[in-house]
Amino acid sequence: MILIPILALLVGLLLGFMLKLQLGGIWQIYMAVAVVAGIDTVLGGIRSALEGKFRGDVFVTGFIANVAIASFLAWFGDKIGANVYFVAILVLGTRIFTNLSIIRRQLLTKWHDVRERKRLDSEAKAQQGESESKAQTVAT
Predict the structure, then answer these.
(1) Residue 65 region, left (φ>0) first, then alpha (ψ -120 to 50), else beta?
(2) For residues 7 and 87, what is the distance between their CA atoms, to the nearest angstrom?
(3) pLDDT at 140 over 80
(4) Fewest beta carbons within 10 Å, which of 2, 5, 29, 32?
(5) How far is CA 61 from CA 5, 8, 41, 99, in A?
(6) pLDDT (tens digit, 9 = 90+) per residue, 45-77?
(7) Which of 106, 112, 116, 113 is nearest to 52 (CA)?
């Protein structure tokens, strides 16, 4: 499940590099806000996958909704003469850093759990080997 948001990000990057579209004027701001919204959604998808809560339908609808809302805010701010896209970038940037910190903590916790499990397994095998050698000594 964690592969879906990662693959979506990679496909988007690949398409972006292959198409080489040149945007001018205000479209650059709209696209920047949309890209940041997309990155936020992808990181949210990775986070939910690590938490075991990932659902594809929620990811896709969330991606579309986040990009649409962020783009609308940038457009609306442009129409009323306010730089509302700064607010969208600030909020989405905060969410990106929050998701990254949670992803980092979850990965570190899983890594520590794996190391601890390996250590306990090796100790259990060593104790089992000692028990077997003592049993063989007593038997002889």
Answers:
(1) alpha
(2) 28
(3) no
(4) 2
(5) 13, 13, 10, 18
(6) 899 988 989 888 998 899 899 889 888 888 888
(7) 106
